[in-house]
Design goal:
Shape: globular
Oligomer: single chain
Mean pLDDT: 94
Strand content: 15-25%
Largest sheet: 7 strands, parallel
Length: 389
């Protein structure tokens, strides 16, 4: 089978959407499938893609603003490239976001091959081109049942939307072999309790709620530290998914001002973007995903739990599908600092009160959210689409 992936930018700096595609492509290549990557902008994962992809092809654009002549002219070479993109009878076009389905449909129609679309985000910012592209999708793949439900309410047939949960690399995300040594490397005493956050610095991520909850926890447990890892990349408008780094920096400064106001600035550290987050999970006693917006899935949850670190997360979006069974008690109301503080206080000392929690967290991920299970799910759908013609 030939998997043709359409990506905006192959990078690890933006979020889980790009990392999911990378792991899917690599997993399929390891299983002997041919993989090609089409991309608009270069990113830091491009060189790694080139180690297993048969082709990595730059594309000028997946669409255009018809009101801007220069935008139309920029798109024309993409249109001219359609005949040059290698395909075969077993090829499948895979849009990693619905934003690329316009070009994806043109490519699929030209070569008479199927188009699939990965639903990892809520449906925002539609235009005629994207609606045209979505009409040509043979099957959709959603990362959560909540995501599938949102798209179904827009009129997309539920029978055409398959569900494949995200998976994580449990060889990369593992518990610390020596917790004391990891703490020593970070310069943090073993007696200190560490709470961590991993994600972009954005209002929708609920970081203010976390900071306020942390201040409440600190009143009871003074020897506690909060580590915030992420790039200040604010979405000015969630509906349009427009990112503004300048506003992101302004937002980080407002968070720092909140720390000063609460008198906890010495106990909180902003780490910036981390290329390797496993060490942060390993050094932490608990990781928090305090999102206000309906997260479609929440990769951070399974990454942290694979490292043996329990997670407290908001009861919103697809998150309740990730924290199920006995882990449902780790869900809190979005935006409720008191609720979050209570949950943190109940779990913060698990190493003494419930020492098997770390291993149970990892076993849960191994059973339900492994990388192999995600690639298996994607591969089965691809085979079905190809064999059905």
């Amino acid at each position: 089978m030939h998997f043709i992936a359409l990506e905006h930018q192959p990078t690890s700096l933006r979020g889980g959407q790009e990392l999911n595609l990378f792991e899917i492509c690599r997993g399929l290549a390891q299983r002997g499938h041919q993989v090609s990557l089409l991309y608009e902008q270069e990113g830091n994962l491009l060189e790694q893609y080139r180690t297993f992809c048969d082709h990595t092809i730059p594309i000028n654009g997946y669409g255009f603003d018809r009101r801007k002549l220069h935008d139309v002219l920029r798109f024309l070479p993409s249109l001219a490239s359609l005949p040059k993109i290698p395909t075969g009878k077993d090829s499948v076009v895979f849009s990693n976001a619905y934003h690329s389905t316009f070009f994806g449909r043109l490519l699929a129609r030209y070569h008479q091959i199927p188009l699939l679309c990965y639903l990892q985000i809520p449906p925002f910012d539609f235009n005629r081109q994207r609606l045209f592209g979505l009409q040509g999708v043979r099957r959709f793949i959603a990362v959560s049942d909540q995501t599938r439900s949102v798209w179904s309410k827009l009129g997309y047939e539920p029978d055409k939307i398959d569900l494949v949960y995200n998976g994580t690399d449990t060889n990369k995300f593992t518990p610390a072999t020596d917790f004391a040594q990891v703490r020593q490397q970070w310069g943090i005493p073993e007696s200190t309790r560490v709470i961590s956050f991993v994600g972009r610095l954005d209002k929708e991520k609920g970081i203010e709620t976390l900071i306020k909850a942390f201040a409440l926890v600190k009143q009871t447990y003074p020897d506690v530290k909060l580590l915030i890892a992420g790039k200040p990349l604010l979405h000015v408008s969630l509906e349009k998914q427009k990112e503004c780094p300048e506003e992101g920096m302004k937002y980080q400064r407002s968070l720092e001002a909140l720390l000063d106001q609460l008198g906890i600035e010495d106990s909180v550290a902003f780490l910036g973007h981390l290329t390797q987050t496993a060490s942060l999970y390993q050094v932490s006693d608990v990781t928090v995903m305090p999102s206000l917006w309906p997260e479609p899935f929440g990769r951070v949850i399974i990454e942290a739990m694979a490292c043996g670190t329990p997670v407290i997360a908001s009861r919103t979006g697809g998150i309740p599908e990730v924290l199920t069974g006995k882990f449902q008690s780790h869900l809190v109301d979005p935006g409720n600092a008191v609720d979050l503080a209570t949950a943190l206080q109940s779990i913060l000392h698990w190493r003494e009160t419930d020492p098997s929690l770390g291993m149970r967290s990892r076993e849960y991920v191994l059973q339900k959210f492994s990388l192999d299970s995600m690639v298996d799910g994607i591969e089965k759908i691809l085979f079905k689409v190809v064999n059905d013609g």
